[in-house]
Amino acid sequence: MNLLIQGMRRTARAAALVALLGVASCGGGDPVVEFEPDRVLAFGDENSLLTSDGHKYSVNALKDVNGVKTLDCATNQIWVQRLANAYGLVFPQCNPNNVANPRSRMYAEEGATVADVIEQIDQHLATDTFSSKDLVTLYAGHHDILNLYAQYPSSTRNDLLAAALDRGGALARQVSRVVAAGGKVLISTAPDLGLSPFALKENTDTGDSSRDELLSDLAEKFNEGLRIGLVNEDGTHVALMLTDELMQTMAKFPGSYNMKDSTVHVAVCDITKAPTVLQCTTDTLVTDGTVSNHLWSDATHVSPNGHSYIGSLATSRVRNNPF
Question: CA-based diameter of the chain, in Å?
Answer without folding.
Answer: 58
